[in-house]
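Data card: per-record layout.
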Amino acid sequence: MPPLTPPLRPSLLLLILVSSLPTSRGSLPPPPSRPCPPFSSSSPPPYPFSTTPGLGHPSFPLVTCSSPHSTFSIDSLPFSLLRFLPNSSSLLLSPSSTANSSSSCPSSAYVPSRPISLSGSPFRVSDSTCSRLASLRPCRSSLSLNCTLCPWHCGLFRDPLSLLPSCPQLYRRHRPNDRGCQSDVLDYLGNMLSNFGIEVEWETGQDPYFTQCRACQSNHNGSVCGFDDASPNKSFVCLPLEPHRVSSTIVRPGPPDRIATLGFLVAFLACFLLMVSAAAVTIFRRWSGKDEEDPTAAFLQRHGNMSPLPPVFTYEELEASTNGFDPKRKIGDGGFGSVYLGRLCDGRAVAVKHLHSHRACAISTKSFCNEILILSSIRHLNLVRLHGYCSDPRGLVLVYDYVPNGTLADHLHGPRSIFTKRLLTWRVRVEIALEIGMALEYLHFAVKPPIVHRDITSCNIFLETDMRVRVGDFGLSRVLVTAATNSDEKHVWTGPQGTPGYLDPDYHRSFRLTEKSDVYSYGVVLMELVTGMRAVDRRRGEGREVALADVVVRSIHMGLLEEVVDPDIAVEAGVNPVAELAFRCVAAEKDDRPDMSEVVAELRRIRASTCPHGAGSAVLQADMANV
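The structure for this 627-residue chain is written out next.
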């Protein structure tokens, strides 16, 4: 039997009663009656967006709020807002058709008549968008436009990246051949802008408006964030919305009306009876001993003071989103739980992880709380995002981003790997290795105190459709503290946990966990990318040959690396340096391994020398067009 709904507090009932009265002049305007796309709720859009002048962030005001897309402008160019995920720091935009060029220069309606400048705004173009434009190249054919009349379009035809001048120079180096070129660049570019859009990102930690808004909302419950629209620098303003509304209603009530007065008395009587009933239910539950606090929720509240916790879902919401945890919707199954594809009521596709109930309760609850607390305190483009959780007697459930392209293990070793593995060109593999490394570098050096993932495997590395990496599964992760020793090394003493084949043997032997344990696991993943083999495979024989790390280390010692390299990439330059880097990562002694900053720097050097034509996702899209 599900627990009884907790009674409404008298203060909340009074607030509901007062807010139902007619508001006086000077209060903020009511919320829109229909939702602003892509926001599904009819309430005002979340911060930093706003439809009311002076509210929200000065760079995010919505110009229009209408179907099918709301619009706002950057540098006086209008954009349609295609997608915005709650708790994210990125937008998917499409230049509005009103920003197109004149009819004298034929082009798609979505191609702006000038470059898209982000200077003076908090936005930057994402790497995936720059990569997508970098992969768009014109064929060696005559240009049909009159370059005298249409110089901008001619320049855009020859260099599509000139549309986004803020893209790094790295993406401006094109491959010399014409494989995958486009004869009508402007039409293809227009379709790309209208269908895929432009992804822009921003840093909430570096933007003073976001910092001051968090302080405003934490110090003044019910307040909203805005800015002084009349001042030249648009200074931040914290608006105490609810106290203003209540006080203005009480001090300056509207003209008396008999019907309104009668309605007020009826509402007051109903609320009074509801309060009495709620108090009676509370007394009965306490007397019967059923008013016990959920220990999981209590633990999260005690330890979640470092960062705000994600939203809480009801079990019924998540059950409905997965069609009753339908086995046909299962997309993964790990040691701690099964993962289902869910569709929330607002249309978002999410991955819903239901922790196994047959495991020891303490282990499941610890992993559950650990993942919530860690993922709530970190944010990186190459880490999965936690959208919410549910702590219910019927099950512990976590809600993540849905990453549609499976895991790295699926592409390398899965049942369909014979088809998907050809997409893992050497350039794509180098880019995947680099993005995994940047995620670990962030956990080890940017987060204070550092975080050790403790379960880096190819099964926990998820891939977007453009092959961007999302590292997930933080159930075993640990925060490092400075040990009480004479050295400054940070570690924790804990029993070894992880996946066989990836587990650091020094950690297994000494029970001392450091960032170098992640480096070892990462080295094994590098070996999987180089060889295409599984980390553990009993078919390779008995003893040490079962572990991939032992196979590759032995081959390097004997000078026979070419025998274990994946035949699909054997002729590529840069394979040997990556294999040698993996060899250093799996060194038996922790001190002999590089840290993740060194690993990332080395991979960037290898990419620059062997993959000089842009990021893996751009290359992948060009390759997929020719498959």
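Known properties of this structure: The CA atoms of residues 283 and 289 lie 10 Å apart. Residues 408-625 form a domain with the Transferase(Phosphotransferase); domain 1 fold (CATH 1.10.510.10).

See the next section for split statistics.
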